[in-house]
Amino acid sequence: MKLKYLYTALLIGMISSCAKEDISSLDNSNECPLQINIDKACFSDSNASRSEAGASTTSFQENAQIGVIVTNQNGEILVDNCMFEYKDGNWSTTNQVDISVLGKLDYIVYSPYKAEANGKKTLSELKSLFPISNPQTSQEVFEQADLMYATGELTSMSINATLKHAYSMFALSPRKTFISEQNAHFDYIPCFVSDIKVQVNGQETTGFIFEGKEYRFLMDNTGDVTVKWSYKYFDKHYVGERKLGTPQASHKYLSVDKLIPEPFNYGLAEANAGDFYCVTSEGIQGYAIPYDAQWLLPYHKCVGVVFWGDKHGNDDSVYPETFSVKGYAVALNDCSGNADGKLQWVTDINNNIATDNNRSKWNGYTNQQTIVNSGKQLSGFPAFGACVNYPEKAPANSSGWYLGSFDQMAAIHVSFGAVNNSLEIAKGKKLSEGEYWTSTTMDTDVKNAAARNFTGWDAISKLKTESCLVRLILSF
């Protein structure tokens, strides 16, 4: 019999596990849609699956593409590499396919789609289009070789395909684990791990670091495989070896070297200058990520960089009773201002307020509260209003953003190199050599406030109606 032209569409509800996805096809009385149900593929073996290792399951991203090939029992191609594209939660194709069903039909569903697969009808032909690259130095290179496929018999206009990986994967994890303020455990490869060398059957290969937790690369599945590795962590060298036999397709072989045997606490009280200050996904709680766990940053929301650990002895600000200072962080970016990004301390000098003029005090929080609680319109104090209106809201277990005092800004200067390096790593804006406002009033003239730059140590006396850069800080 003859089927009508196919207009195929898939609607996929994305989920985080390896369970089957719910898919339905478009219903159109003038078309005969091919329904396709796809299970996500996972690497797994007796040691760990992706989910058990804390990494992501295989999933389809926006604009991902898969191919469908259908042949009859004579080996004739009936559906030649039909491409489906994932957009806005749906899989669809606009290709029109004329199929005559004369008997047994076989299908191949594969990912990622390649136009070069036109005319290909066997798995071995497909696999030749996905050679394993060496080095595999990026996730993009890895995924381009990571062929996933499913084969089966098409007995109706419905394909139930469970994709699996054509290759196996080896993952090396020189790991540390820290426990955050919220008692969450985070595994990571320290950035100080160096000279990573991996050999597969004597041939050196290179992988990429996945989600900051594993060093990954694909392996072919022909013959026995022995993997050897070595790396350096500070002044200690590590070596290892694992004999895999013949690796199985779709299996992940994970080897973990624990650089520190047990998880260690790294709460806010342990934070040091250069660490990353992050907030939970709800933006409610703040926590610190150590500098050497910087590979984790893409998977956390960083809002600042620590510039001082512990409460400073000159901080006599009166914080809420439930709050105890453990350290201080500077915001990732300057506050927006006029065309050159600058703000006034006060707009009208006749509306001026004199904050504390002691330049050795760490009382930026108190100075901020003096302005906020003055009863005057905050819009008249742009540099202080920017603290309240800063788009990245401060978490509940912090003081909230405020304009730092002179000596607090000087402390950033002390750790300037480490802070600026971490700001760049966190994709923030490095502190410039321009003049930044502090919340400290000059002792010589209450119409002036102390500004400072990061090239000198002295206070710069500026009329408060002038404009300077503004970078906020908070206590945590």
Whole-number count of domains: 3
Q: What is the topology, as strand order, of the major beta sheet?
A: 2-1-6-5-4-7-8-10
Largest sheet: 8 strands, antiparallel
Question: Could you estimate the helical fraction of the residues in percent?
Answer: 10-25%
Strand-pairing-aware structural class = mainly beta
Q: What characteristic shape results from the CA principal axes? A: elongated
Number of helices: 6
Stretches with pLDDT under 50, minimum 5 residues: 1-33, 45-57
Termini gap: 72 Å
Q: Mean pLDDT, as a whole number?
A: 84
As a percent range, the share of strand residues is: 25-35%
Q: Over all CA atoms, what is the radius of gyration?
A: 30 Å
Q: What's the β-strand tally?
A: 30
Task: Describe this protein with a few key phrases.
476 residues; Immunoglobulin-like; 8-stranded antiparallel β-sheet; 6 helices; 34% strand
